[in-house]
Each structure stands twice: as structure tokens, then as C-alpha cells.
Amino acid sequence: MKISGKIKSIDVDGYERLLSIQTDDRLVWCNLVQPNEYLEPGQSSIYLKMDEPVQLKVGLFFIADHRVLEGRADNAMSQDAYGSPHAIVIGEVIGKISSDTYLIEIEKNDQIEAQFESNLELNIGDYIRVAGELAVLD
Prior knowledge:
The structure is a single chain. The protein is an all-beta fold. The protein has strands at residues 2-13, 16-22, 27-33, 53-69, 76-78, 86-98, 101-107, 110-116, 127-136. A 5-stranded mixed barrel has the order 4-8-7-6-9.
């Protein structure tokens, strides 16, 4: 899933960053690992700047719980905990990447890679609800 917007906040802890991105219609929180820059809390990144426009590809990770839904569902992604990368995704399984990673369509032409904590078997066309952590890929 691609997120385009401006960086509104950057919290740092070592190589990890918690970013808030203001898109056209919402504020999205996601984690980023930046292995080329170690920072202590309170320090500023030389690579990421506030109000800088960004386009990031994000996925959903650390999914320990999921539920296959009966019939077709209203696809959505929500983040209910302010300041947290925790996200709930409801969508259709449209592809299998590996034994623990699937591609879920949230909206037409908007897919997110979802990596589960363990191997599982889902069927293409299943509608599922998953909760995990939104993080930048690559």
C-alpha cells in the first residue's frame, strides 16, 4: 500500500522511527527502520524532515490474530489508537506471497502486504479482518 503525504511527526529510538504522515484525508502512523542512522530520543534525522513530502510503501506486520469473514465485507483500514502504528484491515485476499504473507486488497488498486506471525492457509477470495502494525517496506 502506498501512502503519500507530508511528515507531521518523527519519534526516534535507535534505528527505529515512528512517523505520522498527513495524507489528503487522514493522519497515518507507521514504523520505519532506518539502519543507516542511529539516533537517541530527541535527536533529529538528517534523512527525514518535518513537513517533507513523502511516498512510502507500507505493509502490515506482527499479525497474530485474524478472522475470515462470512461473505463480502466493506473493505477498510483504520487506526483507532492515536500515535500508534496499530492498524485494523478488512479486505479481500488477492494473492499469496509466502506461507505467512498474503496480499490483501483494501480498495480497488490499493493492496497491502500482510505478514502473519505464523504460517496459515487462506484462500484467494476470502474476506478477512486482521490487526497488526503498519510499517514501511524496503
